[in-house]
Amino acid sequence: MLMKKVYCIGLLVCDVPLRPVSKEIFSMNRCAIDPPVWGIGGDAANVAVALSKLGGRALFTGLVGNDMYGEFLKKRFVEAGVDIRGIITDPVMPTGVTHILIEPGGERHFLVQNVSINSTLDYSHVREEFIAESDYVFLGSSMSSLKKMDAGGTAELFKKAKSLGKITVTDCDSKIKMQGSYWLEYLDQVLRHCDILMPSLEEAQMLTGKNELPEIRDALSGYGISTLVVKMGDKGCYLTDFKDECIIPAFNEFKVLDTTGAGDSFVAGFLRGLMEGWDNKQAARFANCVAGFNVSKVGATAGVPDFETACRAAMDGSVNIAC
Description:
The protein is α/β, with parallel strands linked by helices. Helix content is 35%, strand content 22%. The protein has one domain (5-25, 33-316): Ribokinase (UDP-N-acetylmuramoyl-L-alanine:D-glutamate ligase, 3-Layer(aba) Sandwich), CATH 3.40.1190.20. The relative contact order is 0.14. Mean pLDDT is 91; it is low at 318-323.
């Protein structure tokens, strides 16, 4: 039986990580860093690559410019095993680039250029035949960076996907500015056609205007979302189907070198688990393990292991699920 497929849509940038860079950089005359290695960046792009590294099938739609960064990204996608039929080359706008300043402890600070190309992504760039041939449709970075998708494109995408019997999934953009009812009303139709919502705790707080997990759950309970997964970094994740709820601790045995892509690798791990037919708890535990591997390397997806390695580590770990 053919492995299930995830159609990933959203941000795409070329990441240039610079490490290590301390907070005292502006008081220093010079700073020695490791050789920078270009990589794929952007939530949906990272999820597609991580899924492929985990042995899953991923198809990606996003925008690049007609430049060396765009060519590099397409080449790296192909090397990673991602289907790039959906990548579109803009003849005018340049590819987005992110220079990532990484502190010795792994925290990141982003210097961005040309990322406005992503704000032009809309539903017209989506191929409906790609939706039809996939099992899951994932839209990365809702609520901020993908302005045209937020302004109706995501709702149209998810409505079409649901009409074709697909499972719809989204996370949030970490740059959410408005709180509470603004986004809940703005994205009402998105949430009503969304099966799995996967924000970070901070994003969930900004989205709902609530601080505590039970309050966040209640604020999101009326939209028809079947699964809410709140990513909580080194505390693991919160999981609820709006009937039962669990806190699934992180795998903190890994030494943190770079948290870039931690949430994206978690999303990929969770979806990869579902593709195996696992229940949400098993998938979330596996996702925590994949994220642990990923933060132990420098790069958005550099630490993502193969499926068998992640499975062994997830099964051998001593993490207890608190339900």
